[in-house]
């Protein structure tokens, strides 16, 4: 059972961490420095917020891009894994699982 739990834990960690890259094409400002990494828990909501901040087009003609302003206060989302039989999510510093629509129970560690 210990091997199975380790396998599930590793699967959930890799499943919940899908990298997303964004690149601006046609911006007047040259690229400065290393790529910016968002280290807070986030999801497609952060990506859509960032796109909505860029959609007016002003950053494409500006001589520089204020990445700190564009990336401040992006929505944060906790990692949740779900398939047709199970939901796994953190709550108050513990991980819980719900199998087949049953009750929420602490995830076995």
Write the layout of secondary structure elements.
Blueprint lengths: L1 H15 L27 H11 L3 H4 L5 H5 L9 E2 L3 E6 L2 E6 L4 E3 L3
Antiparallel strand pairs: 1-2, 2-3, 3-4
Question: Short summary of the structure?
Answer:
This protein has 4 helices and 4 strands, in the order ααααββββ. It is of the alpha+beta class and 109 residues long.
Describe the structure.
The chain is α+β, with helices and mostly antiparallel strands and 109 residues long. Helices cover 32% and strands 16% of the residues. It contains four helices and four strands; from the N terminus they run ααααββββ. A four-stranded antiparallel sheet has the order 1-2-3-4. The protein is elongated and about 55 Å long. The termini are close together. 1% of the residues are buried.
Please describe the structure with a list of short key phrases separated by commas or semicolons.
disordered N terminus, 16% strand, 109 residues, 4-stranded antiparallel β-sheet, alpha+beta, 32% helix
**What gross morphology would you assign?**
elongated
Structural class by SSE content? alpha+beta
Please tally the β strands and state the result: 4
Unreliable stretches, pLDDT < 50, 5 or more residues? 1-8
Strand percent estimate: 15-25%
């Amino acid at each position: 059972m210990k091997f199975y739990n380790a396998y599930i834990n590793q699967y959930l960690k890799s499943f919940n961490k899908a990298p997303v890259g964004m690149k601006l094409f046609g911006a007047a400002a040259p690229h400065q420095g290393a790529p910016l990494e968002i280290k807070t828990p986030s999801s497609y909501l952060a990506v859509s917020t960032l796109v909505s901040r860029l959609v007016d087009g002003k950053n494409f003609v500006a001589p520089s891009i204020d990445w700190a302003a564009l990336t401040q206060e992006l929505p944060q989302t906790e990692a949740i894994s779900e398939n047709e039989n199970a939901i796994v999510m953190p709550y108050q510093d513990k991980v819980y699982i719900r199998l087949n629509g049953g009750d929420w129970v602490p995830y076995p560690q």
